[in-house]
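Can't attach files on this board, so I'm pasting raw text. These are the components:
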Amino acid sequence: MSSELDLLRSLDDEPDTPSTVDIRRAIATARRRRVRRSVGYAGAAVVTAVSVAGASIATGVFGGGPLTPAAIAPASGAPAASAAPAASAAPPGSAAPASAWAPASCTLERLPAPDKAPMAIIGGIDPTGRYLVGRSYPKGGGYQAVLWHDGKPTKVNMPGDLEEDLRAVNSSGIAVGFSYDSGGSVPYAYSNGDLTRLPGVQHGDAYALNDNGEIIGSNADDKPIVWKSLTDAPAKLPLPAGTKQAAASDIDEDGTIVGSIDYRIPYVWLPDGTHHALPMPEVDGKPVAVAQAHNVSNGWVTGMASVTDHALQGLTKDAADQLRAVRWNLRTGEVDMSTALKRPADDVNPEGWQIGTDQAGHAALVTGKGTVVLPELVPRKPDGVSTIANAISADGRLIAGQSDDRKDVIQPVVWHCK
Amino acid sequence: MRDEAEQEYVEYVTARVPALRRLAYVLTGDGHRADDLVQQTITTLYLKWHRAQAADNLDAYVRTMLVRTYVDEKRLAWSRVRLFRETPESVVEDRGVEEREVLRLALRKLPRRQRAVVVLRFFYDLSVEDVAATLGCSTGTVKSQTSRGLTTLRSLLGSRSLIPL
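---
Top answer:
Structure tokens for the assembled complex are below.
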């Protein structure tokens, strides 16, 4: 064992980045938290009443919102993006004229976790909003992959008992994710009750899929790959010469894939086989140093930008403050940066609506008509992390995510928007 | 918190931050994540300072807090910032630094809980029982996770001939 000991001890160094640990800030944060808690304990009944009236916690059953075929249509209408990815004729938003509907308010519903697990997180939603995926943290420890169908959780048992998660699900209820074996993470798909190991790689990961069953992920070398189906061997995505690192992070209904090159160049792989960098957003007339594409829906791409590359070098004191929310329109080539969002968006729908954290630190939905704050399980001082929206359905009527309960434990929630 | 207790808290934390950053860094493999983990830990410590001071071993108490925060994935701020989920390999200068980076990357390939077990067992020399207490799991789990973690590390590092394991 002594060799392992020596090996690990060689890591006994502090981070090579300057410390951002701030004791005064810890004290200030702790004091605020303590004040909130004492208020909660002192008048629990009163607080509950306020929650129902003020934060509009839904009492209805899951899926109460209408999900008409028309409402779902934007997702399946996506192939338009492949027809003319560069044409400026019809920006995705034009399918929804200025007078089109957008939610004015959203109500919160807490979802159950399997076996009454104390904590769970929802990370993915299908376009219809009927399927959700994530994982729970069972009482005995470890992780349990979970699929919710119409609000009811099902445990998805994956080989290995180390770490697992389901990351994405499509309208047929096919979900993809990973589980660790002793050699690393292994990509899996779950379909109709059957779990299949994705073919062609010994290790890797699966990040997203579309309704055609095309799945994107990474192989053992951390290079981006695409599976055309659950049974096809994966294909490596082509990369520009000189690429050291690349990641694919999401796939559109028409097969358009978005990601980044070398952590700093936003990139798109189109269904026709071509691929290119996305335009760098500009701040004060100058292109930013770093940008990445994270999500795509109906030709809308959302991601992050940072004016400097300090964040990549680990040099900034408060790098997170410098991460901006960027949105590209693949049809028009336009780029905008949301001033409503404090951080990069967590997801985008076919209308280009974004979910994320607003400037005040609330979880929020940003549509063309304004910002809708998403209510939380327990009213708190907004901090950007106690309530998080992770995924939005195609029609924007259902949003899934997490919200801390009274004991600061993460609970799985959905928001019904209308 | 009374002024006196707060002063003790500040003194303790000031002295322990370097050690906490080292632990957080070996667990997360990333300076920013490490600092967020430490920040979160000392914030909670402030709230629990009275109870913490009564602990037999304050350092172990705080270490347990940090490791559990890490393993439980209590929504650290960094978990939202994908940029830092994908931090590139640092520029390496000399061989010693490079070896550490290779090892750091290998550690990052271990699942979270397994990584915590390996770090606590071999980085901190904790006994199986102490690791089990820290993580709130059985000694059997610690043993199996240790064995798997080392096997994985060997397979990841073996081809690099980094160290004859």
